[in-house]
Design goal:
binds 2-acetamido-2-deoxy-beta-D-glucopyranose; 8-stranded antiparallel sheet; 37% strand; 9% helix; Jelly Rolls; mainly beta
């Protein structure tokens, strides 16, 4: 997309912040389970399905070094136990970076678990898990990942549920050098996903289907030499400088005190050698 085309969409004077509402036909490649992933509604929607033979998945054609990505998802309804719908950003290689949302299915009427993780240079173990304050299978809800040089914020319908700050001064590695693609897949995780693997996928209910729409990306444009050409440059209102303001912090705390069901920063039993250094700041 050239700058002039983008300007039509965002009506700002400098072509500094790229926002586009995606078209799945142009923006993603189906990389798994070809016939089980279906692009619909002129590229505005996609469905992924899973049966006993395989699941399915897609990834963005573009790679991003920082970005604000959002997508609306409607998760597998009914008995979704054992299924995992993933939606994440990841770079490649042995020292990869990754920012994860995973939705762990459950028996009809039992709650989904939203599983999050941040992996830097191949090292993760930073899980936080949440319940949602709504049934994610009835309607579409917006799940976003803001990733800028200062912070990573996971949000649900605009409410932040988790923040992972750049704490390089405290020697915590932060993803800031490797570009990432957006990935999504629907797969069978019944060896661990639901009640730790105790509840298996009921294949008589297959195929399972998850629905996606309104893929939106704001990102930076980089030249071939690696210099950023434009990256929401003009300042304070840009996603590039976005952080958590006072009001968002209240909502984040509301989520964390009412809906967080697991926090690696509170798991001294698992991390006998000591909690991660970023955990100190989080209390
Ligand atoms: C910083 O982290 C690296 C990698 O984990 C480690 O090798 C190094 O010793 C740490 N430096 C300090 C000052 O803690
Ligand atoms: C499924 O529901 C059970 C019972 O409410 C709950 O313990 C569990 O955490 C839920 N989620 C998963 C992914 O197992
Ligand atoms: C982009 O380049 C400008 C000017 O060189 C610099 O100030 C800014 O920090 C860079 N942004 C990123 C995300 O690298």
């Amino acid at each position: 997309m050239g700058c002039s085309q983008i300007l039509i969409f965002v009506s700002i004077l400098s072509c500094s912040s790229l926002v586009f509402a995606g078209d799945f036909r142009k923006d993603v490649d189906i990389i798994w389970g070809s016939d089980k992933a279906k692009i619909l509604e002129n590229g505005q929607a996609i469905t992924l399905s899973l049966d006993k033979v395989s699941g399915s998945g897609f990834q963005s054609k573009d790679q991003f070094l920082f970005g604000k990505i959002s997508m609306e998802l409607k998760l597998v309804p009914g008995n979704s136990a054992g299924t995992v719908t993933s939606y994440y950003l990841a770079s490649i290689g042995a020292m990869w970076d990754e920012i994860d949302f995973e939705f762990l299915g459950n028996l009809s009427g039992d709650p989904y678990t939203v599983h999050t993780n941040v992996i830097t240079r191949g090292k993760g173990d930073r899980e936080q898990q949440f319940r949602l304050w709504f049934d994610p299978t009835i309607d579409f809800h917006t799940y976003s990942i803001l990733w800028n040089p200062k912070t990573i914020i996971f949000s649900v319908d605009g409410t932040p549920i988790r923040e992972f700050k750049n704490m390089k001064p405290m020697n915590v590695s932060y993803p800031e050098k490797q570009a990432m693609r957006v990935h999504s897949s629907l797969w069978n995780g019944d060896d661990w996903a639901t009640r730790g693997g105790a509840v298996k996928t009921d294949w008589s209910k297959a195929p399972f289907t998850a629905f996606y729409r309104n893929y939106e990306v704001q990102d930076c444009v980089w030249s071939a030499s690696g210099a950023n050409v434009s990256c929401g440059g003009d300042g304070s209102s840009s996603w590039l400088n976005e952080g958590i303001d006072e009001n968002s912090m209240k909502r984040l705390k509301w989520v964390q005190s009412n809906f967080m069901i697991y926090d690696y920063c509170n798991d001294a039993k698992r991390f006998r050698m000591g909690l991660a250094s970023e955990c100190i700041d989080m209390n």
